[in-house]
Design a protein that fits this description.
By secondary structure, this protein is of the alpha+beta class. 36% of the residues lie in helices and 17% in strands. Strand 7 and strand 8 (491-497) form a beta hairpin. Helix 5 runs antiparallel to helix 6 (115-129), helix 6 (115-129) crosses helix 8 and helix 8 (162-177) packs antiparallel against helix 9 (191-206). Residues 1-23 have low confidence and may be disordered.
């Protein structure tokens, strides 16, 4: 008997471990057990939303605006069609149009029960399901289309004819769920991972009872692969691809998390990724006092709705994260841009999950946000009340090799008096430059040193607020880091080490950027020339102001205000020469930049010597 005890003990331990292991395995079949609607907002939450609409004027305005646009979708004479963009690369415009129409009309039907919305959803689902494919060559197109059809199927399930349900589910399997394996986005840490897996997860959950095996496989893969993508937020919540792509990628990411939570009551730890729950705060600081964002990488400076902020506000119980969203909504700007409005029903879904405060916007907050990661940043805002004396400074490190990167390491933007004085030209529209490059058999998306991407004016270092040595490009393999963060009333800012970015061009380069308590901006560059050759350096700053060189420096004028940019060297033998350059490229694909100028100086640093040149930007007062 004693000999049998170890055997029984081993069997017991084995069964216990097996039971524990089994309990850790997700029960993906819960999707089939859950009644429709499963995605983003169930019927109980719909009732909560109705209460919010009755009690909260801002939520009522959001709801009314969604219904109004759903009416526009119903009466729109332009229909969905299988049509690629000018470069022949994307079906994305049609996928986004489908998501906009189906999301809005499905929401309007759920909230009103009116047949006109249901009819439009049914028509649009059948239209896109009759397409030859959803363009898996550019899987973003597939991801957004899959999300559209999944929402239409799931939200309108009870009223759709069985034949339409079957057709929608079959298309989700045929065009999306069976086509993702081997796609490049599955292993990449980019917004593609977030967008595509959001659409695929929606498809798997909505169509689970039709295709349980392929849906289960997709869900397992999606959680594992998306976990990799979430690394981009670490360690401090900074999104490497910039403001616009945060809105895009994080918008889809939060929808993905909400869909998993809605069915499985967990997101399987995805939101626990380092930095992720801090990224909403990061984006709050990305908006300057001018009303323009810090538009590094492939981003424009104009403010857009950040629908993911509704998710963070709900999950963190932080209504102040919605300050920007509520302000846009009240100003009537939340539905101006069709590129972004397709996500608006998601905001309503999140409003169904927590009591949105009717607090006033513009509350005080910390003045400095900084963080590390692939693209370290420092973001400084002296106030949050919209007063003329409030100022904003933002600067970055990083590398041009990052996804959607520009040669903008060391670049900064600066706001004062409600105006932007140091700005970024923004992204280059993709389709036209891709089409132009096709004639030369070149790729716009290669991030290598010899890539033609850097022939595009807006992509290169001479179009950014940073240094250029001679006529050379930044070193793509170099990465700029930020250190020595200062956050006192006397000065706020830090130091950017640009040495790797100028590898083979300078021995070293360090840029100190400070917002001083005397209302001055200081940008001090300490550079050492190579031992064997002098360094011809250009210091450049893009500006919206009208510039004029004077004896004191460069006088900048806009909006009834004047600022003076002045430079001084710690070496009397090294004298900066003020310059004004046109903010324009010379290639056929370069887009114009009306109203912009580039100001700064040129200087020669003797071989082997080190020099610090300090630039001050101050309010100009007539003497």
């Amino acid at each position: 008997m004693k000999k049998l005890i170890p055997i029984f003990l081993a069997l017991f331990i084995g069964l216990t471990v097996s039971a524990r292991s089994a309990s850790c395995i997700p029960d993906w079949g819960k999707a089939m057990d859950a009644s429709h609607p499963r995605l983003l907002m169930n019927d109980t939450e719909k009732k909560n939303l109705r209460r919010q609409i009755r009690r909260n004027k801002d939520i009522a305005l959001l709801h009314k605006s969604i219904i109004s646009h759903a009416d526009e979708c119903v009466t729109d004479t332009v229909r969905l069609s299988y049509r690629l963009d000018a470069s022949g690369v994307r079906l994305l415009e049609q996928s986004r149009y489908a998501l906009e129409r189906i999301f809005f009309c499905a929401y309007a039907w759920r909230m009103s029960g009116k047949d006109k919305y249901l009819s439009q959803v049914r028509e649009d689902i059948l239209t896109v399901c009759a397409f030859p494919d959803w363009h898996t060559k550019h899987f973003l197109d597939t991801g957004e289309m899959a999300l559209a059809v999944a929402i239409g199927l799931d939200w309108c399930y009870a009223a759709l004819p069985p034949a339409v349900r079957d057709e929608a589910a079959a298309a989700l399997e045929r065009f999306a769920l069976s086509r993702y394996k081997g796609q490049w986005f599955t292993t990449r840490v980019t917004n593609w991972n977030q967008v595509c897996y959001c659409g695929l997860v929606a498809a798997a959950v909505a169509a689970y009872e039709w295709y349980p095996q392929v849906s289960r496989e997709l869900l397992e893969t999606a959680v594992a692969d998306n976990r990799k993508a979430m690394k981009m937020y670490g360690p401090d919540g900074i999104y490497p691809e910039g403001y616009i792509y945060w809105s895009y990628g994080t918008g889809f990411e939060t929808m993905l998390l909400e869909m998993l939570n809605g069915v499985y009551a967990t997101d399987f730890g995805l939101s626990d990724a380092p930095g992720f729950m801090r990224t909403g705060t990061f984006m709050k600081y990305m908006m300057g006092t001018s009303g323009k964002c810090f538009s590094y990488s492939d981003s424009d400076e104009e403010q857009v709705p950040l629908y993911a902020m509704w998710w963070f506000a709900a999950r963190l119980s932080r209504p102040e994260l919605l300050d920007g969203e509520i302000a846009l909504l009240r100003e009537g700007k939340y539905f101006e841009d069709r590129d972004w409005m397709r996500f608006a029903p998601f905001a309503a879904c999140m409003a169904s999950k927590f009591a949105v405060s009717r607090r006033k916007t513009g509350t005080d907050g910390e003045k400095l946000f900084s963080g590390n990661g692939p693209v370290p940043v420092v973001l400084i805002r002296t106030g949050w009340k919209g007063l003329p004396e409030e100022r904003y400074l933002a600067f970055k490190g990083g590398s041009a090799s990052d996804n959607h990167g520009h040669m903008d390491a060391g670049s900064f933007v600066y706001d004062a008096f409600g105006l932007r004085w140091a700005c970024d030209l923004g992204t280059q529209p993709y389709a036209d430059v891709e089409k132009a490059f096709q004639k030369h058999k070149k790729s716009f998306w290669s991030m290598k040193q010899e890539s033609w991407r850097w022939k595009v004016f807006r992509m290169g270092n001479t179009a950014h607020n940073t240094l250029t040595v001679g006529s050379m490009q930044h070193c793509v393999g170099g990465r700029a880091t930020i250190s020595d963060i200062m956050d006192t009333d006397a000065a706020r800012g830090g130091v950017i080490d640009l040495s790797e970015v100028f590898q083979g061009q300078l021995s070293s380069a360090r840029r100190k950027i400070l917002l001083l308590d005397n209302d001055s901006l200081l940008v001090a560059d300490t550079v050492r020339a190579l031992p064997e050759s002098p360094a011809d350096i250009q210091w450049r700053m893009v500006t919206d102001a009208s510039p004029r060189i004077t004896e004191e420096g460069i006088l900048l004028e806009q909006g009834g205000y004047r600022m003076l940019l002045s430079a001084s060297s710690d070496d009397p033998a090294v004298t900066p020469e003020y310059k004004i350059w046109p903010a324009a490229g010379s290639e056929e694909w370069d887009v114009p930049n009306p109203g912009k100028s580039i100001v700064g100086y040129s200087v020669r640093i003797p071989s082997g010597q080190s020099c610090t040149i300090s630039v001050y930007l101050n309010k100009y007062v007539l003497k």
